[in-house]
């Protein structure tokens, strides 16, 4: 017979913390291997998973977007990264700065980041933890995983729920009209680059006066 879920042993918080530490150390070790052909833009040992339609930004683009998010969020600001793990990584590198950040991501490998990680499936845009209060983020940085209106529309529900107002969206140039329709964002001059060249032209969109023009 199928075992009951209840029979699965629960790890104590102490064990979990030790496990997390182990994973982070492992990631740092992986990170040290970058010279041996690892992609240094990936998060430690977390590499792009194309089946999840993951494409990391180039280091320069991730830094630029992270810097913009921090400026837009302001002192003590809260930043949400929705399906934008490479921006999250750059924000984590600036540890000790005066802001906090959450990552909403489908890829459960990011759960090593503990409470900052929120499992997110755009098909269920408002299926979010209760402690994630509406309009509690100063800025939301989002990169919907697919170039489809359905994906943008659903991700837009999440963005609108989370943000106090400011939105920084990265998606294909072909999505300009839909981005305006669903989120009221306009295209910026800044052109995001990926660590691998993608076939689709990517652009950034914002709904506030940003430093990306």
TrEMBL record:
One of its GO terms (cellular component) is cytoplasm. It comes from Setophaga kirtlandii. It is found in: Cytoplasm. Keywords: Cytoplasm, Methyltransferase, Transferase. HAMAP family: Methyltr_EFM5. This is EFMT1 methyltransferase. One of its GO terms (molecular function) is nucleic acid binding. GO terms for biological process: methylation. It catalyses: L-lysyl-[protein] + 3 S-adenosyl-L-methionine = N(6),N(6),N(6)-trimethyl-L-lysyl-[protein] + 3 S-adenosyl-L-homocysteine + 3 H(+). SUPFAM superfamilies: S-adenosyl-L-methionine-dependent methyltransferases. The keyword Membrane does not apply. The keyword Methyltransferase applies. Pfam families: N6-adenineMlase.
